[in-house]
């Protein structure tokens, strides 16, 4: 969280964050200065700046942003947006945090439409509370029999 970054958020996650983070800059000041790209067909503006609202061909617009020079583009939460990114091969790496609890049903991370892709672990840690934090980076195409 200390490296330069911009954020790519779905509308629901953005609306939760815009109510919280401007009032808690002491915890994570970079979140307020990062450019927040928001995938939304209903929102067009916010007082939480800098924010850029994306609508229409979200995958195409994100592919264009990825082509530009700039800091890492991070997605937090935003499950529906993550599904779109996976379907269009726009994810370079996953930082996953796996918590040792079960809360019941929920959204699947790798739902229908996710393309086959190989990943490799580049960093991992198990916290004292049992949370597994792991980074998976793209490792090319899936090779049959490689698991």
Could you explain how this protein is built, in words?
The protein is α/β, with parallel strands linked by helices and 147 residues long. The protein folds into two domains: 1-91, 3-Layer(aba) Sandwich (Dihydrofolate Reductase, subunit A); 92-147, no CATH class. It has helices spanning 11-20, 30-33, 58-67, 79-87, and strands at residues 5-10, 36-39, 51-54, 72-75, 93-98, 119-126, 132-138. The protein has a four-stranded parallel sheet. Strands 5-7-6 form a three-stranded antiparallel sheet, with no helix packed on it. The radius of gyration is 16 Å and the shape is globular.
Which assembly state applies to the chains in this document? single chain
Number of structural units classed as domains: 2
Shape: globular
CATH architecture of the largest domain: 3-Layer(aba) Sandwich
Task: Report the β-strand fraction as a percent range.
Answer: 25-35%
Q: In DSSP terms, counting alpha (H) and pi (I) runs of 4 or more, how many helices? A: 4
User: What is the makeup of the main sheet?
Assistant: 4 strands, parallel
CATH C-level class of the largest domain is Alpha Beta
Q: How would the blueprint of this fold be written?
A:
Blueprint (H helix, E strand, L loop, with lengths): L4 E6 H10 L9 H4 L2 E4 L11 E4 L3 H10 L4 E4 L3 H9 L5 E6 L20 E8 L5 E7 L9
Parallel strand pairs: 1-2, 1-4, 2-3
Antiparallel strand pairs: 5-7, 6-7
How would you briefly describe this protein structure?
With 147 residues, the protein is an alpha/beta fold.
Give the key terms.
2 domains, four-stranded parallel β-sheet, Dihydrofolate Reductase, subunit A, alpha/beta, 147 residues
